[in-house]
Specification:
The complex is a heterodimer of chains A (554) and B (264). Chain A has 554 residues and is α/β, with parallel strands linked by helices. Helices cover 74% and strands 0% of the residues of chain B. The chains are: A alpha/beta (554), B mainly alpha (264). Chain B: It is found in: Cell membrane.
Chain lengths: 554, 264
């Protein structure tokens, strides 16, 4: 498949001139943050653009022009020549049909049970009973395998995988990626992998294209790109990716936020956020020039190597003896499902304790119990002070920045209200709180809809801190944020320096944030100890699996 | 489009407030010698069988035709929003009790109950209006409750609970503004339903005493004059239709623009 000069516009320009080629037998990664236009590029390449968007340029498959083709032509191409694997395996499968029916539907020629089972075995489902199950009876990883089997049932020459593993656990994510690689090699097909995660793209792809504000800014083999990025944006992203191997003294993000393609159509897309930008960068749009064969960049300059801040030893924070949280024997069941099976842990003052585990490990239920949103079946929760009300002792930063602020209230109103719940002495004003989290004071008048994801999360942190809690619970605070923004939010949380219970599925993040680590699996603590010790030398089999599944840091 | 809808409802509101004052003739003044006459320069919409000016009666009747439905809509909205929020946020026995009552209320044949109530109590129009508000409330409670259930699980509502805010504040300051699109749309729909239902009652001769200038009543009283002056019954019927359509469409639009703007 060859995509050239692809432009997509709706009410404004969204994708601005993308050129990309995928040959059979090769895996190409298209990497970009949210809003970069990567998913729309994939949708245009399969003729599935949402209503109201128009694409110009050219998409050819084996020399045949597809852009602007009739729906009838597309139907003959989709599934059989090009297949699309999407992010959410639950939404992609019809809940009323069995796994086998999904695969059988797309098979050509033989449609018998033996063939369906063979196809399911190909994606690593050996249990023949699975064919008769419905999507809701399967785990996320199994659903994605079934979806993959269905996508490959008609033997397409090209598989477009749009964030195929984003919704999955780290361990499952690794398995699915390896599965896609194995299938790609065995079948000799082309794969276009679309992802926001550089680590995933580098692990799997032969060639990686980095997209930014609707255009490709750099392209090349992952090994070279990791060693010597040829575009400042790629360099910035690489620096922002947290590593599981060591604790970085400082987490560096990229300042500012992603512009829309229309705003930067006549300049270098990255100029406004670039440390190396010169006046040339703002005058003309730099072309995608060839450095070497297979190595393209849209930067005019030689990229200065980023000075990685050298490890400044683990700066231990002041940990005093008194506890701000002690949980003993916490149990909570939902029907027959055991969410928490007797969990005990404690957090000292000034200490940051990480809680890691896959989905279903009970880590969110633990947080909700401590916050008082869920009543545990048994066990005790002791906070710093038995007299003061719970809401002044523990506060929470929730995962999803799109719902964590009330859309109807201004930022100022939210913060004022929250601060009024704290102790009456030295009450913090919205202006002070905004300053604390590094936002302009003028933001007090805005509503959440006028803020980016990272800014909303900062406001959420300010709201949690407004009552001066003894303990801050962070429930996946950066899981929904782009890498370049993640670093800023994590750095902010470090600076704040309250005692923290930091819940995450991402070992690289927890390495940066936690002094001590508790590993949860199926509602039980399987391992705990000093973060560095646990991650460098995991003792429990589950922890080892978790550590092994982290994509290698570029 | 939106401007047209607002203009239609605005004109209706002006007529409802200042109708009797704007009317060119006394709506009760009879001209038996003239009888039912077709539209003329003196009487733009003609006269009815007692020689009363149709236009004046329409203007004078706008008040009772529109004010009562507004009252129904206001009562229904306040009741259903409060009770729906309470049921959806409190859950537990409050919710169970309220929802079973709602189930019972919805199982009753509403219009029939209304006719009996008005028939038994007699001309007390206010009672009919109150009964109607009570009849409309259960359906809206269900809608508000289901939306509350969805909103209370969102992170901002959990954050409010984590901050230890009192339940009433969470319900009315945090959840209610996010239900606003539905509340506004459903109050306009209640208005429309009440407008049509009250006109229907008038048409059946239940409620207002005969001879009162009222749109529903005019359709009924003048339907015998279709050959002499068709406007005497068509005009009030058309007004009811136009106002009802305008309010429904405006409700739709308000819902869309409110759920898009600011809130998401």
């Amino acid at each position: 498949m060859r995509i050239s000069e692809l432009r997509i516009s709706g009410s404004g320009l969204i994708v601005d001139g993308v050129d990309l080629e995928v040959s059979s037998g090769e895996t190409v990664g298209l990497v970009g943050e949210s809003g970069s236009g990567k998913s729309l590029t994939a949708r245009a390449a399969t003729g599935l653009l949402p209503k109201g968007l128009r694409a110009t340029g050219s998409v050819t498959l084996d020399g045949r022009e597809l852009l602007g083709a009739r729906e009838r032509v597309w139907r003959s191409v989709r599934g059989t020549r090009v297949s699309l694997l999407m992010q959410d395996p639950f939404a992609m499968l019809n809940p009323l049909r069995t796994a086998g029916a999904h695969v059988a539907e797309s098979l050509r020629g033989r449609r018998d049970r033996a063939e369906v089972l063979r196809r399911l075995a190909e994606v690593g489902i050996d249990d023949p009973d699975v064919a008769g199950r419905h999507p809701f009876q399967l785990s996320g990883g199994m659903r994605q395998r079934v979806a993959l089997a269905a996508a490959l049932a008609a033997d397409p020459g090209l598989l477009i995988a749009d964030e195929p593993t984003t919704a999955l656990d780290a361990t499952t994510q690794h398995e699915i990626l390896m599965l896609i690689r194995g299938l790609q090699r065995a079948r000799g097909m082309g794969v276009l992998l679309i992802t926001h995660d550089l680590r995933v793209a580098f692990e799997l792809c032969d060639r990686v294209a980095v997209m930014y504000a609707g255009r490709i800014v750099e392209q090349g083999p992952p090994a070279e790109m990791a060693k010597a990025p040829a575009h400042p944006y790629t360099a910035g992203l690489l620096a922002a990716v947290p590593t599981v191997e060591r604790r970085l003294p400082r987490l560096i993000g990229i300042r500012g936020s992603v512009p829309s393609a229309a705003q930067v159509s006549a300049t270098c897309a990255f100029a406004a956020r670039c440390d190396q930008a010169t006046s040339e960068c703002a005058h003309a749009r730099p072309p995608l020039r060839e450095l070497r064969p297979e190595r393209l960049t849209a930067c005019l300059h030689e990229v200065r190597p980023r000075t990685r801040v050298e490890e400044g030893g683990q700066e231990r924070r002041q940990v005093t003896g008194d506890e701000v949280l002690r949980v003993t024997g916490l149990r909570r069941t939902y029907g027959s499902h055991v969410a928490l099976g007797g969990v005990s842990l404690h957090v000292n003052r000034g200490e940051s304790v990480g809680v890691v585990g896959g989905s279903g490990s009970g880590k969110t239920t633990l947080a909700r119990c401590v916050l008082g949103l869920v009543r545990p079946d048994s066990g005790t929760i002791e906070l710093a002070d038995p007299v003061r009300p719970r809401h002044q002792l523990v506060q929470c930063v929730f995962q999803d920045p799109s719902t964590s602020l009330n859309p109807a209230l201004t930022v100022g109103a939210t913060l004022t209200e929250a601060a009024a719940q704290g102790p009456a002495k030295d009450r913090l004003t919205p202006a002070e709180l905004l300053e604390l989290v590094g936002l302009p004071v003028a933001y007090a008048r805005r509503r959440p809809a006028g803020l980016s994801g990272g800014e909303r999360q900062r406001v959420a942190i300010a709201r949690a801190l407004s009552v001066r809690p003894a303990l801050l619970i962070c429930d996946e605070p950066v899981a929904s944020l782009d890498v370049s923004v993640q670093a800023h939010v994590l750095e902010l949380l470090r600076e704040v320096g309250t005692s923290m219970l930091f819940i995450t599925h991402d070992l690289a993040v927890v390495r940066q944030m936690a002094d001590r680590l508790v590993v949860l699996a199926r509602g039980e603590v399987v391992e705990s100890g000093d973060t560095a010790e646990v991650l460098d030398a995991p003792a429990h089999a589950y922890t080892r699996r978790l550590v092994a599944s982290v994509p290698a840091a570029p | 489009m939106r401007a047209i809808l607002v203009a239609v409802l605005g004109l209706a509101a002006v007529a409802a407030v200042a109708g009797s004052w704007l009317a060119p003739y006394d709506p009760a003044a009879q001209d038996l010698a003239l009888g039912a006459a077709e539209p003329s320069a003196a009487h733009w919409l003609g006269t009815d069988d007692l020689g009363r000016d149709v236009l004046s009666r329409l203007l004078a009747g706008a008040g009772s035709a529109l004010m009562w439905p507004v009252l129904v809509a206001a009562c229904t909205t306040v009741l259903s929003t409060t009770l729906g929020l309470l049921a959806g946020y409190r859950l537990g026995w409050v919710d169970a009790l309220m929802m079973r009552t709602v189930d019972l209320a919805i199982a009753m044949p509403g219009m029939l109950v209304l006719i009996v109530v008005v028939g038994v109590i007699g001309g007390g129009y206010g009672w009919a209006v109150l009964a109607m508000a009570l009849l409309f409330t259960p359906g809206d409670i269900r809608v508000i409750r289901s939306l509350t259930l969805a909103q209370r699980e969102l992170a901002y509502a959990e954050a409010a609970r984590t901050l230890g805010l009192p339940a009433s504040r969470i319900m009315f300051r945090h959840l209610l503004p996010n239900l606003a699109p539905t509340v506004v749309a459903s109050s306009l729909l209640s208005f429309v339903a009440a407008l049509v239902a009250l006109a229907g009652l008038s048409f059946l001769g239940i409620g207002l005493p005969a001879g009162t200038p009222d749109w529903g009543l005019m359709v009924q009283e003048n339907r015998g004059l279709l050959d002499l002056n068709p406007w005497a019954s068509i005009a009030p019927a058309a007004l009811i239709t136009v106002v009802a359509c305008a309010a429904t469409l405006l409700g739709d639009r308000a819902f869309e623009s409110l759920s898009k703007g600011g809130l998401r």
